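Subject: Protein record for review, amino acid sequence with backbone structure tokens
Why sent: The fold of this protein is of interest and is recorded here as tokens.
Enclosed: The protein record, placed directly beneath this head.
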Amino acid sequence: MRLALCQAAPTRGDVEGALVRMDRMARAAALSGADLLLLPELYLPGYNRPGLHGPMAQPACGEWIARAAEIARQAGCALCFGFAEKTPEGTRNSAMVLSAEGERIALYRKVQPFGAMEEANFIPGEGYVAFDFKGRRLGLLICFDIEFPVHARRLAAAGVDLLLVPTANPAAYPHVQELLVPARAAENGITVAYANYTGDDAGLAFGGGSVIAGPRGDILARAGRGEALLVTDLPDPDPATAQHAPADRERGDIPGP
């Protein structure tokens, strides 16, 4: 499987501009032979825009997802991105995966809110999600989730060998992408892809440093501080280190922590 990861400038509430960039990156990823493009947390409408999250949030069947599905179809590349999801219970910090045909594959809701802004704006998720893609078992976490070993461990125990992590990690916490992401990969014998922002969003500086860490904690690709599109061929799952679930494991939601 070939994975593309977009380290983007903050979208700052400009949804139309964000979708234009998504289209451009998806086409570039497809031209590079990538099967899937990973983008950051709350890519729509933007991370450090708490006044927009509730008012602009859309359901998982809304216009944002329809537009993204058309981008995936036109580019011929699957997409994973974060968005503010409107649900009957309230606003969720969610990640959507769409196939290259524009079909919904997976929806995950962040279980571990970070800081006062997220706690005030979002309702935490209650469970994990795993799904099959290109002969692999994939799972989703969002940003702060990856800092807690239990979340990656539960997904690895359910057979996940590739973990997609849209994130919005501030520049003050470089240890996450430099230490914790490779550690989560090595602890569980899985590949972890961590897509961050770079630049400033309403006074919050993001550190870049997006990374793809292999099943032994090795760095397969890493971005610097600027905008970047990483494209890399992922190693096959390592039977010597991976934690395999039973062959009859069920597709879909996995109970939360």
Remarks:
- The CA atoms of residues 151 and 257 lie 7 Å apart.
- The longest strand covers residues 78-87.
- DSSP finds six helices and 15 strands in the chain.
- Confidence is low (pLDDT under 50) at residues 243-251.
